[in-house]
Amino acid sequence: MEYKCQNCNGSMEFDSKTQKLICPWCGASYDPAAYDQAMQAQQQGQQAPQGAAASGADGEAPQVGTFNENQTLEMGQTQQWNVNDDGLMSYVCKNCGGEVVGDDTLASTNCPYCDSPIIRNDQFSGMLKPELLIPFKIDKKTAKEKLNEFVSSKKLVPPVFKNQKHIDEIKGVYVPFWLFDAECFAEAKFSATRTRTVPNGEEIEHFDVYRSGELTFEGIPVDAASKMEDAMMDSIEPFDMSEAVAFSTAYLAGFMADKYDVSPEDCMKRGLQRIRSSAEQVLGDSLHEFNTHSMEQSNVEVHKSASHYALLPVWILNTTWNGNQYRFAMNGQTGKFIGDLPYDKSLYKKYFLRTAIVTALIVFAVCFFIWWIR
Question: Does the predicted model carry a pTM greater than 0.90?
Answer without folding.
Answer: no
